[in-house]
Amino acid sequence: MYWKKGSYTAALTTLSDSLRISVLCYGEDHPDSAETLSSIGMVHLARGDYEAAMKFYQVSLRVKRAVYGEDHPDVARVLIRIGMVYDEGGRHGKAMRLYKQGLAIQRLSLAL
Fold first, then answer.
1. What does the alpha-carbon distance between residue 50 and residue 65 come to, in Å, rounded to a whole number?
2. The domain 3-110 is classified under which CATH number: 1.10.10.10, 1.25.40.10, 3.20.20.150, 3.90.1720.10?
3. Is 0.85 surpassed by the pTM of this model?
4. H-run or E-run covering 112
């Protein structure tokens, strides 16, 4: 909620606390930890810190692929978010490939 209001510092503090608790309770390679990592990436993307966003998204993607496999909607969402980082950074071709990959996974998961 904080990041939607532009309170990025508060959002990062809250999400960092959440990540710490998730890792303590479930471990680094748990879906809850991966989702929090992705949320931290979203805040960094909103701040324009593309390098930090990419770092958090990449770790989230690794965990989600390990937990769910390649063809899962959660994997698709992270791929699309990574595409957003590339898009914002001017790497539109790379972004489009990731958008298409994410969309294909979403369609597959919905059997469209």
1. 22
2. 1.25.40.10
3. yes
4. none
